[in-house]
Amino acid sequence: MATATKSKKKINLVPLGDRVVVRREEAEETTAGGIVLPDTAKDKPKRGEVVAIGDGHVKNDGTKVPLTVKVGDKVIFSPYAGEEIKIDDEEYVLLRESDILCTYSED
User: Fold this and answer.
1) CATH of region 12-25+43-104, choose from 3.40.47.10, 2.30.33.40, 1.10.3720.10, 2.60.40.10
2) pTM for this one?
3) What CA–CA distance (Å, rounded) separates 39 from 33?
4) Fewer CB near the last or first residue (10 Å), C or N of the chain?
5) Residues 6+ away with beta carbon under 8 Å from 74
6) Confidence band of 77 (pLDDT split at 50, 70, 90)
């Protein structure tokens, strides 16, 4: 469950069904060649960390299938997937699990 605070108020993000809340990674500040990028030239990262998940997908027969991803997973998602949400200064992406392309780890 994602938690954000606003003037001593706690906001809990609880996605419904097969939706997932992802905290997007920070955009790169410089290119591989060392050129500093202005905000307008930065691509939004297509990677992030799962901070909250829904309770699963409901099949046609009414049974619920739990989500594959879990809170804390690092994921890569489709570039135009989901809805952007901003709470206080935190930016999140609310998307369906099917918009997640893969999980990854940094070793």
Assistant:
1) 2.30.33.40
2) 0.75
3) 17
4) C
5) 47, 48, 49, 50, 103, 104, 105, 106
6) very high
